[in-house]
Design brief:
single chain, mainly alpha, 5 helices, 40% helix
């Protein structure tokens, strides 16, 4: 919605961000994600879910923007966030990162340890050789039976 070409849609998205920031979590715990019911008769993507019946949380991607910045974006003629925040969703790279974070969560305990594990793994990948082609594989034991 933030990058929609229609002005009333991106204005609505900014207002929803401000409203979501007003929600104060009861305690610092993981949020329980409950998927909203989908309206399959929707004629536009903003009608796919009922925004009034679901709890919307502020996006981590926008946490660096203050409320004044968001209000100025609503009132301004230009929307710089359209150019800045165009990220691909669920690309192969994202799937690799999800796999790496899951692996790190299974191997180490704690935020700092997990972060260190992920950084070390990502740093070591360019250094390690890549054996992706058949000539690189060598069989140590001769599998063929000699007659």
């Amino acid at each position: 919605m933030l990058v929609d070409e229609r002005e009333h849609i991106w204005e609505l998205s900014h207002r929803r961000i401000l409203k979501a920031r007003q929600i104060v979590p009861k305690k610092e715990t993981d949020r329980n994600f409950v998927p909203p019911k989908i309206n399959f008769q929707a004629s536009d993507y903003i009608e796919i879910i009922n925004w009034n019946s679901c709890v919307v949380y502020p996006q981590p991607m926008l946490r660096d923007l203050s409320e004044d910045d968001i209000k100025s974006l609503i009132n301004s003629e230009t929307t710089p966030i359209r150019e800045i925040q165009k990220f691909p969703c669920h690309t192969q790279g994202v799937e690799r990162c999800i796999k790496l974070v899951t692996e790190a969560s299974n191997k180490v305990c704690g935020h700092e340890a997990r972060d260190g594990y992920i950084r070390a793994t990502l740093k070591s990948r360019p250094i390690m050789p890549n054996f992706s082609k058949e000539p690189y594989f060598k069989c140590v034991v001769d599998i063929k039976k000699k007659k």
